Amino acid sequence: MSSRFNVPGWVRKHNFKDGDWKQASASELDRIKAGLSKFHANQPVVSVVIPVWNEEKNLLRTLSSFSAMELKYPTELIIVNNNSTDSTQALLDRLGVRSLLETKQGIAHARLAGLRASTGKYQLCGDGDSLYPPHWVETLVKPLMDNEKITCVYANYSFLPFGKAGRVQLGFYELLAEILFEYRRIRREFLNVRGANFGFRIEQGLAVKGFEMPVTRVFDNDESSANFVVFGEDGRMGRKLGEIGKLKLVRNSKARMWTSSRRLLKDGTLFNAFIKRIQNESGKLIEYAFGPKKLKHTTDDFVTKS
């Protein structure tokens, strides 16, 4: 329990004070590039796909964490550049990372492009502003390998300290969020599936067309924006995979990713973020526990009409 309230040593190695890759030394970039070469597998078993948009100040941290990973299976890493206008692509080129450009704007389009380009048996999904532990790949993919009935795996996340929000406060917030996650598992477990930390068999992901969204979120999907969309491609993929098999929460700390708390704190303070979450979720608690197993209104309706 005490480890929840501290930042692990492996995180501190990659959480540079200034994440802008242009400020990194040539030797540091060469070190990360060398570590990432392990992801150039000719016949991968696992494909890791990360969609990015204007992540020049965050992506180096993410790639640094990948460079330090210990891989048990041949693995490929695919970064999908969704029309970045900053130097994100220049960083990918500098580090020799396989990337592809998706010109259709929206995270679902980027994830779908990455899925279609994957050549492994299993796909793991991540984000370009998060840090991943050394044994993340094998820990998250193991349940899929061990049990054919499991069609989707996902794991929890922790927040990096930012501003006045320290690890103690953030740790308690995460505990409350995970209690909600456990409650959702009764009838709405797919809502726990987050794009930054989940995986599935590529063949099944393609078969259920989970990322084929007619209406998709854009990056920085702000509620005050005219482009705000409530339908998530990650939850939809989780729901579709849950209809043909079982979802599995991987509680192992080796699968827990760490991400920025800046978006969490967009309402000013951690207390405000907590109150807002309570307000958003309180009206849904009955549905989470007693709602129908089959949803009546989903993004499938939009797909049918399109």
Automatic annotation (TrEMBL):
Q: Where in the cell is it found?
A: Cell membrane
Q: What class of enzyme is it?
A: transferase
Please name the InterPro entries in this protein's record: Glyco_trans_2-like (IPR001173), Nucleotide-diphossugar_trans (IPR029044)
Which SUPFAM superfamilies did the record assign? Answer: Nucleotide-diphospho-sugar transferases
Coarsely, its chief localization is membrane
Query: What keywords sit in the KW lines?
Result: Cell membrane, Glycosyltransferase, Membrane, Transferase
Q: Which Gene3D superfamilies match?
A: Spore Coat Polysaccharide Biosynthesis Protein SpsA, Chain A
UniProt domain Glycosyltransferase 2-like: residue ranges: 47-200
Domain of life per record: Bacteria
A Gene Ontology molecular function term of the record? glycosyltransferase activity
EC number in record: 2.4.-.-
Is this entry keyworded Glycosyltransferase?
Answer: yes
A Pfam family assignment: Glycos_transf_2
Name of the protein in its database record: Glycosyltransferase family A protein
| Native species | Imperialibacter roseus
